[in-house]
Amino acid sequence: MKFSSKALRCQQSPMRKFHPYAVAAAAAGKKIYHLNIGQPDIQTPKQLFDAVRNFHEPTLAYAPSPGIPALIDAICSYYARIGVTLDAGNVLVTTGGSEALQIACNCILDDGDEIIVPEPFYPNYHTFITTAGASIHPLHTKPEEGYFFADRAKIEACITSKTKAIMITNPGNPTGTCLTRDEMKMILDVAVEHDLYLIADEVYREFAYETGELLSFLQFGYGYENLILIDSVSKRFSACGARIGCLISRNVEFMAQALKYCQARLSVATLDQVAAAALYSNQPNVTRMIRKLESELGCALFFRSPQGVRLTPEGEKLYTHIAVAFESIEAGEEEVLSDQSLQSGIVHIAASSLALRTRLLQVLARYRRAYPHVRICLTNHSASHGLAAVQNGLADFAILAEGASVPDSLTAQKIDEIQEIPICGPAFLELTEEPVSLKRLADYPIISLTEGTSSHDFYAELFLRHGLSFSPDVEVETTAQVPPVVQSDLGVGFVPREMLYGTPEASGIYPIMLEEPIPARSVFLFQRKTQPLSIAAKKLRQMLLEDAPQESGK
Predict the structure, then answer these.
(1) Angle at 447 (CA atoms; ends 445, 451), nearest 5 degrees
(2) Which CATH number applies to 420-519?
(3) By CB distance 3.0 to 4.6 Å, which of 41, 285, 422, 476 could disulfide with 512?
């Protein structure tokens, strides 16, 4: 009898090959160290077994194909604690992480496709990929280099016309390699730029002992069409035998295809799902109670960041009272509410390079003088990435120039206006002799921020309004890069008036007077509607809004 090519391509599990030898060795009284399989040797939490004992439904019925709502809700709540917002449609419960990988491969791979995988890799990847008709393009690493593979040039050199995806295990199995935040972002950027899927196997996400960060690719707030995440309870809760995993993606079309495979196998074991939901210790209820308390107090009790969850200074103060006696909770709340001393704390701000040229830096300087013990974490973001940072809880608020589309989950308040002017270097001094039209300016090489930024969109619209095409000759990442490029006589750029310091002769930058004035650009403060700010963040927001224009924004 003849077997299918799929069956012949399916190799025997390398991990399971060792099992008979381990059994024989154990029977002979030898100590076995099971390095052949990723199974924790700690006790499974009691809640799993209690949930099974307490299951009293008269009929053990099929579960819904996507998974039981209680488990999906628990998974969404788990990711919410690290600043990732998921809805039920973003999650499919699977029979372990293995089925999630199989479904992902079957959904995206055709015969002849290739998928880039750093080696050494989890051996079953080979089975999942080859039975889907594709092949692995290995990304070679060296033990003497710590199995490092996060090199952009190295990854892009592996991309061919057949490449469909990149598959990453982070932290790595079997190497233990942990990617940094910048390395993860680079890999996601490569996937987005080359229109590839990124399959991120994060079943070991919480086993990062040296980096200090328990990062997920979901926390970057973009690349939703490209990212497919694999997770399970096997490692995190030492519950390998429960065989509960999940497939997570915000790609609606991909999830629709994946759901068909879930429907074909009807459902994951109902009791295993009930038990897995219990492993999250009723966290959805706990989370709702914490959110309610934070709302009542008007401040955050926990820092929710890519590094995990920890108490804010307000939360620590409340905890000390709870630890002494439950009766002191009211006193602790009162103290938190009245504490305006700001002797500690941290404020996370996402700001565009253009917005930095507003009153923001001046206000930050004043805030720092008033509250020297509060840490300020200021990150430079494009408009879209800044909004995503606020949405995902990575920033308390974002300071961005107008042009960004505001999600329904955010509010926007106008805090300042920016007046920009065109500038040139010595090679184009003829433009400074008298007022020039925008049409004449368009004949010269134009320097602009990259496509997709609010600045690029602003000037594209301005030129179009005057019947002119906008095709920059030089594109830069930030506003701060415009002056040195102008100084090098590469073209004409646009900067806030505040960036012109000293005399033109000293700086080598010359202002140009336009016949058609450039409209002022508004700068907004964006924050989440439902997320209360810490006292430290609330005070900074108050200072930013003190001298803001009267209109409240968008």
Answers:
(1) 120
(2) 3.40.190.10
(3) 422
